[in-house]
Write a structure and sequence with these properties.
The chain is of the alpha+beta class and 531 residues long. It has 16 helices and 18 strands.
């Protein structure tokens, strides 16, 4: 008991010394409040707080941010960044931010496309609670589960599972630096979803801090609350501390391949055929996505379009080739195109790491992509005709670095009810489109040029994608769809984005939000509103 009192006293002394060195009233009040509310686990002040007046602030702010567009000088910055090392510290932060009446932003991986976990388009001030030091992973192979803290990356989760078993896995994201906390709140799709569903479909428990600063699990939060956080988007219902995930069983060896096709190699007709088979005809053990981007033509000085087919098959090469010969012979896949490897090795392959990188690199948790970019998404229910594809090629030639990624649905995704969790994009969806355009400079004219191209291209695609509503993926946040400027959007205003992300599930999300956070403490530019 005496040691706890001693540590607590030393923490308070450090806080007092820190207050003497700063004159920012928000920072001062936040420090004092945390000191009073963190007695159970004192905060190591020197390694947990970063303010704009210290040299390490910028590096910490930028550490996991992918989109440099959200880090330019004109974008508002937080009053401070707090990196808790214990769950009780997060509790204290929620209590203190609420008392001070300021905004709270929670960051687990920093992948959010509009930077909502580390910046704000709403009225300042705000603080960022960065969960990157809460990354514990406990794998229980005997019971087929794992507890994973929100600050861990999905790559770390994959590695720790593979350490314990070569025939267990978890069906979640393709990008290994995704923070687990936010990733699963949006659904968490990946290359095994046609076999096992989303990451959020395979969550069996969770720990969350509610608007009162209370830590809840599935039993204490109730089934409606638990339903909402598995796909209802981050930042609306509380702070995810950890997920209990259900592991799935896989073969000890899987098969991967990559096959490129250019326009000169009949890419248009092959892609049209892919749309007809990728979701409804191909074996659910096969995930076959397509990257589409301009490339240099074989004719000197000319450009072409390259479609690159990347596949993961939960089985051996001979069965894969047979599946492809029967259902998609147009691609011309041969055994020599395929590589058999362990599932954990396939994680690096799908994430496009160089072949020389060891699997232990997954523990680094580092993003392989950092750039200025704008992204959007769509879901497609009918094959895009060849004339529509040719219109895409024409528009791609007008932009510097456009990219589309087509991810197939079908399989188990079509067999799970739209209302099972908030993620509604299930039966009838052939594939999801991710649009990205990226650039290398922050000048306003450059930003405007590329964003204008993206909007025009998005408008062109309207004829070929889902309608009433035109749907979108919540983990590819797009503020063009509508924005809550003051934290109190009406249901009508919020439906501009809510119906696109959640379809009919939006109404139930509003009901849950109104019950668990009636004061709308957890709010951001596209949060769920209260009634």
């Amino acid at each position: 008991m005496a040691s706890v009192v001693s540590v607590t006293l030393s923490c308070v002394i450090i806080l007092v010394l820190a207050l003497a060195a700063t004159s920012n009233p928000i920072q001062d009040s936040f420090y004092q409040c945390l000191g009073l509310n963190s007695k159970a686990s004192p905060i190591p002040f020197s390694s947990c707080f970063y303010t704009p007046n210290i040299t390490s602030f910028s590096s910490v702010l930028q550490s996991t941010a992918q989109n440099l567009r959200c880090l330019v000088p004109t974008v508002p910055k937080p009053e401070l960044i707090f990196t808790p090392v214990h769950e009780t510290h997060v509790q204290a932060a929620v209590v203190c931010v609420k008392k001070l009446g300021i905004q709270l932003r929670i960051r687990s991986g920093g992948h959010d496309y509009e930077g909502q976990s580390y910046t704000s388009e709403m009225e300042p001030p705000f603080v960022v609670v960065d969960l990157s030091k809460l990354r514990g992973i406990s794998v229980d192979i005997e019971n087929g589960t794992a507890w994973v803290q929100a600050g861990a990356t999905i790559g770390e989760v994959y590695y720790r599972i593979a350490e314990k078993s070569k025939v267990h896995a978890f069906p979640a994201g393709l990008c290994t630096s995704l923070g687990v906390g936010g990733h699963i709140t949006g659904g968490a799709y990946g290359p095994m979803m046609r076999k096992f569903g989303l990451g959020a479909d395979n969550v069996v428990d969770a720990k969350i801090i509610d608007a009162n600063g209370t830590i809840l699990d599935r039993k204490s939060m109730g089934e409606d609350y638990f339903w909402a956080i598995r796909g209802g988007g981050g930042g609306s219902f509380g702070v995810i501390l950890s997920w209990k995930i259900k592991l799935v069983q896989i073969p000890s060896s899987v098969t991967v391949f990559t096959v490129p096709k250019t326009l000169e190699e009949n890419a248009t007709k092959i892609l049209y055929k892919w749309q007809q088979v990728a979701a409804d005809k191909l074996d659910e053990d096969l995930f076959l996505r397509v990257f589409i981007q301009p490339a240099n033509s074989t004719k000197k000085g000319e450009r072409t379009i390259q479609t690159t087919y990347q596949g993961l098959f939960l089985g051996a090469t001979d069965r894969l080739v047979q599946v492809m010969d029967e259902t998609f012979p147009e691609l011309g896949l041969q055994a020599k195109d395929c590589k058999e490897m362990s599932w954990i090795e396939s994680v690096l392959y799908v994430a496009q790491y160089p072949s020389t990188v060891p699997t232990k690199a997954l523990l680094d948790g580092k993003s392989t992509f950092k750039n200025y970019f704008k992204a959007k998404s769509d879901f497609v229910k009918e094959p895009i005709p060849e004339s529509g594809l040719e219109g895409i090629w024409t528009r791609f030639y007008e932009e510097d670095s456009p990219l589309m990624i087509w991810n197939p649905y079908g399989g188990k995704m079509a067999n799970i009810s739209e209302s099972e969790i908030p993620f509604p994009h299930r039966k009838g969806v052939l594939f999801k489109i991710q649009y990205v355009t990226s650039w290398y400079e922050s000048a306003k004219d450059s930003v405007t040029k590329h964003e204008d191209w993206m909007q025009k291209f998005y408008n062109y695609m309207a004829a070929y994608v889902s309608k009433s509503p035109r749907t979108a993926y919540v983990n590819y946040r797009d503020l063009d769809l509508g924005m809550n400027k003051y934290g109190n959007a009406s249901i009508t205003e919020a439906s501009a984005w809510g119906n696109r992300y959640f379809k009919d599930n939006f109404d139930r999300l509003v009901q849950v939000k109104s019950k668990v956070d009636p004061e709308n403490f957890f709010s951001h530019e596209q949060s769920i509103p209260v009634q």
